[in-house]
Design goal:
Layout: E1 2-5, E2 8-11, H1 12-36, H2 39-42, H3 47-68, H4 80-104, H5 112-137, E3 144-150, H6 152-155, E4 170-177, E5 190-191, H7 197-204, E6 208-212, H8 222-230, E7 234-237, H9 238-246, H10 256-261, H11 269-305, E8 313-319, E9 325-331, H12 355-362, H13 370-375, E10 380-382, H14 389-398, E11 411-413, H15 415-419, H16 426-442, H17 445-461
Parallel strand pairs: 3-4, 3-6, 4-5, 6-7, 10-11
Antiparallel strand pairs: 1-2, 8-9
Helix pairs in contact: 1-3, 1-5, 3-4, 3-17, 4-5, 11-12
């Protein structure tokens, strides 16, 4: 079950979970107050004074921490331990944030004892809520019932969506093959529609009909599809369905016509202004907060081998907006002359990395100097990862639509960076491009803010670092 809000498709059970946990976080503060018997805060006369801001600050801090740790993603691929670990980390992060705010803003002050009790209670309530929510969300009866109509070769794409996380928001009722198309067993139930698609959908209780035809010009059942639409059954193009459920744009399903006439892929003056404003604000704040880390990192690199004449910073040509090259700045994490034989893909536990370099690459500290590239306008804070010209030439030749990722500025973080590991091969680059094209299509201020918050999970847990 989904609804559209601000142009985005939202999974209703997950939205209910977000709201339920937001209320639970607020309730945890109130329960902690009652347990501590702090009468000065529980007075009804002061409910709209000192208490309500404290409740809101704690609840919002917890919700943002959960978002940052990827706990509100519909395509979670974590076991119970992974979810539990993220919940604990998120709550500890929220506790730290609220504690700092209490110190900086006396009007929002919450005693540490009260804050600790509220955090503990929030954890207990969260685990109980999530245990119930995951059980309910996995019930097939509560999922959107989907029927696919189309060609065997296009239906085969569903074999790439067999993981539970990929099917979290829908239940695939079955398949209806296009007349004349040879039936290919895909492990799904195949139906016939002698009385028409509308009657079949109503008999099966289908809420969404996905059209998966490679060539829609040949015998597209326009009349039957229109009947389904008018009967309240959603009719969705296959590539749009896969895009919505996976957060990617599948290259083997993509066509120029879909990009030209479909939604998204827009760039207007407000988007350009909001993106640049976010770049300045985010870069300025991060530079201020991370300045001690930047100085310590520079000192560590210099102590390791900078005294031998090695540089602390490393500049490398990358391809930027609309294919224009620029010099990207990073902390040097590899030994000198690491690429004597030419450009190379980064590797897991790269042997070319120095001792300090291995640490700063794992924690992404080596990328902090890119903030100056952002301030100079070469990069955005959020966007596709900038690649080297040597790789771009090869990738544009071998991967269709690769050049279109350059229609937005490259970024320090991005949709592909938080969803996929570091690209170290041609196949990795192809997979990341599917995320990059999704970002190019949907990029806006709210999407950028969501990516920024979720980047915390990548940094804290070292996802994708090499």
């Amino acid at each position: 079950m989904r609804i559209r809000l601000f142009g985005r498709s939202l999974y209703v059970p997950l939205l209910v979970l977000v709201l339920a946990e937001l209320l639970a976080f607020g309730a945890a503060v109130l329960a902690a107050v009652l347990l501590r018997r702090e009468a000065d805060l529980t007075s009804i006369d002061r409910l709209n004074g000192p208490l309500l801001p404290r409740v809101l600050v704690f609840a919002v801090a917890c919700s943002l921490s959960f978002l940052a740790m990827g706990l509100y993603g519909i395509r979670q691929r974590m076991d119970a331990f992974g979810v539990g670990l993220r919940v604990v980390i998120a709550l500890l992060a929220a506790l730290a944030v609220v504690a700092v705010l209490s110190y900086l803003v006396p009007q929002l002050r919450i005693s540490f004892g009260l804050l600790a009790i509220a955090t503990f209670l929030a954890g207990v309530i969260t685990f109980a809520l999530r245990a119930l929510a995951y059980r309910l969300m996995n019930l097939e009866g509560l999922k959107r019932r989907v029927l696919v109509y189309g060609d065997s070769d296009r239906m085969a794409a569903f074999t790439r969506m067999r993981r539970r996380s990929d099917r979290a928001g829908y239940h695939l009722v079955g398949l209806v093959h296009h007349p004349g198309d040879p039936v290919s067993p895909l492990g799904e139930q195949v139906f016939e529609a002698p009385q028409g698609l509308k009657v079949l959908c109503q008999q099966l209780g289908v809420e969404e009909l996905v059209v998966a035809l490679r060539d829609r010009r040949k015998a597209l059942p326009v009349k039957e599809l229109l009947q389904c639409r008018l009967a309240g059954i959603a009719v969705t193009e296959f590539i749009s369905f896969v895009e919505r459920e996976t957060g990617t744009i599948q290259l083997d399903l993509l066509s120029p016509g879909w990009m030209i006439f479909g939604e998204g892929f827009r760039r207007d003056s407000f988007r350009l202004f909001s993106a640049r404003a976010l770049d300045f604000i985010a870069s300025g704040i991060l530079l201020l907060v991370a300045s001690p880390v930047i100085l310590l990192t520079a000192l560590a690199i210099w102590l390791e081998d900078g005294r031998k004449g090695a540089h602390i910073l490393y500049r490398q040509n990358r391809v930027g907006f609309e294919g224009r090259p620029f010099a990207l700045t990073k902390f040097r994490s590899m030994r000198m002359n690491a690429e004597t034989g030419g450009a190379q893909w980064a590797q897991q536990n790269d042997p070319r990395a120095t001792r300090v370099g291995a640490i700063i690459r794992k924690t992404r500290v080596d990328e902090l100097p890119q903030l100056f590239n952002v301030l100079r306008g070469h990069m955005g804070f959020v966007g596709p990862r900038p690649e080297r010209p040597e790789f771009v030439v090869e990738l544009e030749e071998k991967i269709p639509y690769y050049a279109y990722r350059h229609s937005v500025k490259p970024g320090i973080t991005g949709w592909a960076q938080i969803n996929y590991s570091y690209a170290s091969s041609l196949e990795d680059a192809k997979q990341k491009l599917q995320y990059d094209l999704y970002y190019v299509k949907h990029h806006n201020l709210l999407f950028d803010l969501r990516i920024l918050v979720q980047t915390a999970e990548v940094v804290l847990l070292g996802k994708g670092a090499r």
